[in-house]
Amino acid sequence: MAKLILNRLSKSFGDGKPAVDDVSVTIREGGFLALLGPSGCGKTTVLRMIAGFEQPTDGAILLGERVLADAGSMVPPERRNMAMVFQSYALWPHMTVAENAGYPLKVRGISGERYRRKVADALATVRLESYAERRPSELSGGQRQRVALARCLVTEPDVVLLDEPLANLDRHLRQEMEETFREFHAMSGATMVYVTHDQSEAMALATDVAVMSEGKLLQIAPPAELYARPEGKLVGGLVGQGAILSVSLPDNAPRSMEWSQLQQVFTETDSTSAIGDILVRPQDVIHDADGIPCRVATILYEGERYALRLTLPDGQVLRAYSREPAAIGSLFPVVIRSAWRL
Ligand code: ADP
Ligand code: MG
């Protein structure tokens, strides 16, 4: 095993804009990378190039020192020791759980004790030992997904590629499956690349998140860093809750701004300063009688708290949380404890 390297990877299907445009990512051995971005941004194309189903137009894919693909050469998918889990996890309905999980071994001519041990190990990893003799129709959606994971584990792949594996499941089951994926990653030791358009899924699962838009890589960072220090409006708007405000900023404005600096921004409108964007998280917006005079635009009860949309004096919208309800249209002055310049 070794690290997986995407080096200036590009893919064009025709004359138009490339589907993947100059993407460079290094995933350490045993790492868990999420590829996050809206539908159509090129995530599946990246995954298919890693798997060997598409050839790069430019750039290269390496596993350690070994070149898996570039514009002139291709190692075929079956010689990459990778496994791919698709959104629809197509199990054979006439086979048992154990037979489904063991299918890739049968194809490779593995049988006997070795076969039985590998299948048992794979089923144990996804906690399906006691379901070995059931058929897919006798399983829940989450259990079927676990069979698909066992089937992919059974060949002991170096790299596991997952393309929106939870997209078809309901929310409750998705949360349960997120746990399974974390365990699965820890127990298999495989390097994983997980494609999703769901930012909370990406943040919950991965050790690193790569954000893509229109074929380009915008930022790659561990989840907490992506949340705290997003680069640019697209990433800032995609990751976590928050409001992006357009404000006039002094030339020397730091990236991370506190109330003492923000107070000036909201009280003095200096026509000489440049317009910039700041990201304000709702938990940093505090109700304070001496703060900016906002008004309540909408209020939503979330169980533990109320989520408010506030209108600033200039009409821009800010998000805040409150323990107490507030009337729509009422005055709700706030202090912004901290903000991040995008
Ligand atoms: P995502 O998985 O992020 O939704 P895709 O990688 O599937 O995005 O697609 C990225 C872009 O490439 C889209 O514009 C899509 O239409 C295009 N594309 C993907 N596969 C093909 C193909 N085989 N032929 C032509 N265009 C394709
Ligand atoms: Mg896709």
What does this structure look like?
- With 342 residues, the protein is α+β, with helices and mostly antiparallel strands.
- It folds into 2 domains: 4-231, Rossmann fold; 241-341, no CATH class.
- 27% of the residues lie in helices and 32% in strands.
- The chain has 9 helices and 19 strands.
- The protein has helices at residues 43-51, 97-107, 112-125, 141-153, 171-188, 199-205, 223-228, 232-238, 259-267, and strands at 4-11, 20-27, 32-36, 58-63, 66-70, 82-85, 159-163, 191-196, 208-213, 216-221, 243-249, 256-258, 274-280, 285-292, 295-301, 306-311, 317-322, 334-336, 338-341.
- Strands 6-7-8-3-9-10 form a 6-stranded mixed β-sheet, sandwiched between helices. A 4-stranded antiparallel β-sheet has the order 2-1-4-5, covered by helices on one side. Strands 11-13-19-12 form a 4-stranded antiparallel β-sheet.
- Strand 7 (159-163), helix 5 (171-188) and strand 8 (191-196) form a beta-alpha-beta unit.
- The longest helix is centred in the middle third of the chain and has 18 residues, at 171-188.
- It starts with a strand and ends with a strand.
- The chain binds adenosine-5'-diphosphate and magnesium ion.
- Magnesium ion binds at residues 43-44.
